[in-house]
Write a structure and sequence with these properties.
This protein has one domain: HAD superfamily/HAD-like (Rossmann fold, 3-Layer(aba) Sandwich). Helix content is about 40%, strand content about 20%. α3 packs antiparallel against α4 and α5 crosses α7. It catalyses: O-phospho-D-serine + H2O = D-serine + phosphate; O-phospho-L-serine + H2O = L-serine + phosphate.
Length: about 230
Amino acid sequence: MDATSPRVSGSPASGPLRERGPGLLVMDADSTLIEQEVIEMLAEHAGAQERVAEVTDRAMRGEMDFAASLHERVATLAGLEETVFAEVLAQVRLTPGAEDLIEEMHRRGCRVGVVSGGFEEVVVPLARRLGIDHVAANRLETAEGRLTGRVVGRVVDREVKEIMLRQWAGQDGVDMARTVAVGDGANDLGMIGAAGLGVAFCAKPVVVEQAPAAVHVRDLRAVLDLL
């Protein structure tokens, strides 16, 4: 692969993406749009951070099925009060350059989406605040004001992330050749492979090896170097 700058490597935009610019950019949330893993932040409140961090790391390296890992991690959250979501949202830190990247994409007429293996309860209000156009994430089940330790509905895994990229591109009338997907974990590889330009962002080795391009600094503005 050809290095395009000290901050990035791989193949920069080409074809329709280079000629007409991006029409849709889709990012992962945890460790991409934001600095942290929300499941680990929730687990800290449940006293299960170490166990959850270990399972998260294995899942992101592609060593275990993402859906199975999610159910295992979510089970540790049973009994937490719903008020924990507001506490975690207040602690979330955006990755440097996140707001600038979103603003620049919108300036270019590009739509922006976030598809997350994390949770609607945190991702949706964050996306709303940032003016993000599309959002998909998991939803945690609650009963009587407390988490049950289960997920409601489908799990946003590798397959669903790719499906959402394609669905949003169709809704926005954007050719897949003009889409960009950015993520850090093995569950992002489907959308990274399907996009016109797939970008591994400070990613696990398995993702860097398979992604057409990679960003090596924790600054989302570096994605612009590839465009």
